[in-house]
Structures are given as structure tokens and as C-alpha cells.
């Protein structure tokens, strides 16, 4: 300030960028039978939209699902680690384009397995059709471990409102999407 003769300020940029991990549940048992097809397709659209939005904000995002990917060696996709950039988004969208819902292992087990590899402060976007107690317990554990879970419920299910109330008690945001119109509003 003394040298230039006018007030100088220094602006500091944050030195860390927190990551986002999108976890998509495509276990058929977690979706209502009568709306299963529409709800799983909605979940895929929500996952693609969120990944695109996060990467559009120049933040790192990763992706994992328990759905069937026939191009994967074990018929399940390998976790896509968080990265930035348009090429990374295209990789995530390619997986989402070919993924299918199947009957598979319970989703909370996948969260537990992946949660230990996530750095502190990661935002964990959980997209599923229903949230039973084991899933909620896993999200509470993630919150305690310094991870920021966000639960996104897709399709129709009788316990969605109750799940939202439980999430509020534990400071876990819960969003309910019944159609793509809900995504436009959000």
C-alpha cells in the first residue's frame, strides 16, 4: 500500500477442493415393483444430471453403481475415481448409458466398502429408490466419519416422507424425485 499510494488487498483462494462421489443404486429390490422401470431410469437421469452439474462447476466428481455393466470384466463397473473435466464427464455418461438395473447385493454394503476410501469432506450423493434402516445407518456412519451424505430418492415409495424426517434429525439432506419435472424444479 505504501509503495503504490493506494490501498492494496490480497484475496486468498481456497487451497482445497472437496470431492463429490455419485453412488447410484440399481438393485431392483430397492424400487417399487409397479414403477420399477420408470424409477430406475429416473435415477440414471438424476445421476447424469448431478455429475454434469458438479463437473460444470469445475469440481471433482466420481461415480459408482451396483448396476449391471456388460462391458465390465465382472459385469459390474469399476469405481470411477473423482476427477474434473469434460472427458471425465463423458466417461461417466458412457457408463450411465449402458448400465442396467438388476437384482444384486444390498446397496449399504457397497456404501460401506467405498466410504473408507473417501477423503474427509467428500460429498456423497446417494441415489436410490428406497431407504431402509441399514441404508440410513450407513449414512449416519458416513456423517460421523466427516463425509457429507445427501440422499436422493427416486420414484414412488410409501416411506419417503418418513425417511425425509429421519434425515432431518441427523442433518442428512433428503430429496425426493417422482418424475423428471422434479429435477427441473430442483
Q: List the secondary-structure elements in sequence, H or E.
A: EHEEHHEHEHEH
Which parts are unreliable, with pLDDT below 50 for 5 consecutive residues or more? none
Order of strands, main sheet, comes to 3-2-1-4-5-6
Strand content: 15-25%
Global structural class: alpha/beta
Q: What is the residue-mean pLDDT, rounded to a whole number?
A: 86
What does this structure look like?
The N and C termini lie far apart (46 Å). A six-stranded mixed beta sheet has the order 3-2-1-4-5-6, with helices on both faces. It contains six helices and six strands. It has helices at residues 36-56, 86-98, 107-115, 133-144, 160-169, 180-185, and strands at 20-24, 61-65, 80-83, 123-128, 148-154, 174-177. Strand 4, helix 4 (133-144) and strand 5 form a beta-alpha-beta unit. By secondary structure, the chain is an alpha/beta fold. Helix 1 runs antiparallel to helix 2 (86-98) and helix 3 (107-115) runs parallel beside helix 4.
